[in-house]
Amino acid sequence: MSLDLTERRIALITGGAGAIGMASARRLARGGMLPVLVDRDGTALDIAVAALRAETGQPALGILADLLDRAAPHAIMARVAQAFGRLDCLVNNAGLSGARRIGEVAIAEWDAVLAVNLTAPMLLAQEAMPLWQARHGGSIVNIASRVWLSGAGPGYTASKAGLIGLTRSLAVQLGPLEVTVNAVAPSYLGSGFNFDGDEAARRRAEQEHIRLGVLDRLATAEDVAGAVAFLASADARFITGEVLHVCGGAQLAARPASAEVTDGRA
Ligand SMILES: NC(=O)c1ccc[n+]([C@@H]2O[C@H](COP(=O)([O-])OP(=O)(O)OC[C@H]3O[C@@H](n4cnc5c(N)ncnc54)[C@H](O)[C@@H]3O)[C@@H](O)[C@H]2O)c1
Q1: Using one digit for the tens of pLDDT, what is the confidence trace for 24-66?
Q2: Is the confidence at residue 165, as pLDDT, over 70?
Q3: Which of 39, 147, 223 to mutate to test the pocket of ligand 1 (most atoms within 8 A of CB)?
Q4: Candidate list 156, 205, 229, 247, residue with the active-site label
Q5: C-alpha of residue 15 to centroid of ligand 1, in Å
Q6: Range 9-262 has CATH code 3.40.50.150
Q7: Does 247 contact ligand 1 (Cβ within 6 A)?
Q8: How far is the CA of 94 from the centre of ligand 1 (A)?
Q9: Is residue 15 lining ligand 1, measured as CB closer than 6 Å?
Q10: How far are the Cα atoms of 31, 35, 124, 142, 181 from residue 117, in angstroms, in the given order?
């Protein structure tokens, strides 16, 4: 498919082949942006890009890259610069979980979790600087997690809390370029994302803390995508450095120290 490079706004979504990445890409495409999905899973990436093209009838692009590779952010932004010469929205969504208990943390895994969840978003923002500078205005949306408040596995929690810190720093740094930088912090979706514990117990524990009880459900990828689309929209142009919790109110509760809860990663 040949890409329409005229005034179309470009959204780069890491982990774009996953649940939240794909839902976000769909919403941003519906808002008129051209989605560029980055993922390390080539098969899932091809399927996601083809689905987006079929659904929207519009162009979409996939970039196969592993964000564990420190050189990947440079290569990704070089590709975006070459293809489009602009970047309007960066969604740092790719994530790794890691060991749930402190005794199980292996340093190689700790490094990998921090590399994907925290270092890659910083490097991508850094590599996007020439694009932001050439053309003022844009947004970064970092997908954090409610665990930055409640605590879960050490590496995952530290990386997501660090991502909130990075969000605040980048909001200050990129403010003069009129780039807004915000985070979305979802609660557990009940699917995907490497959860290998007792799914039913986890779901029950999660639901206990959801304040929107009448809905009797967990967060969905579409709930998260709605927040992403809002923060990337003109309606949010005066909002920066914020954390938007997509938790049904679960961020309001202090969580009890049960095994179920400390096992939680999302
Ligand atoms: N699912 C949840 O319950 C939940 C809750 C809160 C926050 N989050 C966060 O949302 C984000 C997306 O989660 P999801 O539920 O859509 O997960 P998912 O597993 O459906 O998607 C994650 C995607 O990221 C890609 N990815 C992982 N490591 C990568 C790497 N090194 N380089 C490139 N791509 C890589 C995967 O291939 C996958 O397509 C993550 O940052 C996660 O921490 C998820």
Answers
A1: 999 999 999 999 999 999 999 999 999 999 999 999 999 999 9
A2: yes
A3: 39
A4: 156
A5: 6
A6: no
A7: no
A8: 5
A9: yes
A10: 26, 21, 12, 9, 16
Please state, rounded to an integer, the average pLDDT across all residues of the chain.
91
Q: Where are the domains of the chain?
A: 9-262
Cα dihedral 101/107/113/114 (nearest 10): 120
pTM over 0.90: yes
For the record, the structure tokens of 20 come out as 């939240």
What's the rounded Cα separation, in Å, for the pair 88 and 12? 8
Question: To which residue do tokens 């919403």 refer?
Answer: 27
Torsions phi, psi for 39 (to 5 deg)? -155, 160
192 lines ligand 1 (CB under 6 A): yes
Ligand 1: nearest atom to the Cα of 22: 16
Q: Which amino acid is at 198?
A: D
Q: Verify whether residue 188 is a known catalytic residue.
A: no
Is residue 174 very low, low, confident or very high in pLDDT (cuts 50, 70, 90)?
Answer: very high
Site to probe by mutation for ligand 1, drawn from 36, 38, 40 as the one with most ligand atoms within 8 Å of Cβ, is 40
